[in-house]
Amino acid sequence: MNVILTEPVEISLRTLGEEGRRIVGAWFDHLKNWETDEYVRSHSHQLDSNDNVYVLKTSTDIRIFFRLKKPDIVVLDIARKATIMGVGRVSEHSGS
Predict the structure, then answer these.
(1) pLDDT tens-place string over residues 36-86
(2) Burial of 56 (0-12, 13-18, 19+ CB in 10 A)
(3) If 0-12 CB within 10 Å is exposed, 13-18 middle and 19+ buried, where does residue 69 land?
């Protein structure tokens, strides 16, 4: 499958160090093999069934958000688990 990176992903990649970019790039390679990579499919969880948006929980603290739109996988965002958890705490405290 084709992996397409959105602008927010390109920006996020620039904030990573060389090792971080290498790791994320390897996960993008796994996504290319979506149809045959059991690990990627079993660790990807659909967020909204109407939109085919998934989050891939990698074996690292990186989470990859993507839209499955065959023959493409559109990567919407990448984030560290700690960042996601922090956002959740802020929302809880703000009453939203």
Answers:
(1) 999 999 999 999 777 899 999 998 889 999 999 999 999 999 988 655 555
(2) buried
(3) middle
> What are the phi and psi torsion angles at 49 (to 5°)?
-65, -25
Q: Which of 78, 84, 63, 59 is nearest to 11 (CA)?
A: 78
Contact 48, 55 (CB under 8 A): no
Residue (of 61, 69, 76, 62) closest to 8 by Cα position: 76
Query: In sequence order, which residues have a C-beta less than 8 Å from that of residue 91 and are 6 or more positions away?
Result: none
For residue 71, is the peptide bond before it cis, meaning its omega torsion is within 30 degrees of 0? yes
Residue 46 β-bridge partners: 54
Of the candidates 92, 79, 68, which has an alpha carbon nearest to the alpha carbon of residue 1? 68
Q: Which domains does the chain have, with CATH numbers?
A: 2-94 (3.30.2310.20)
In terms of pTM, does the model score above 0.85? Answer: no
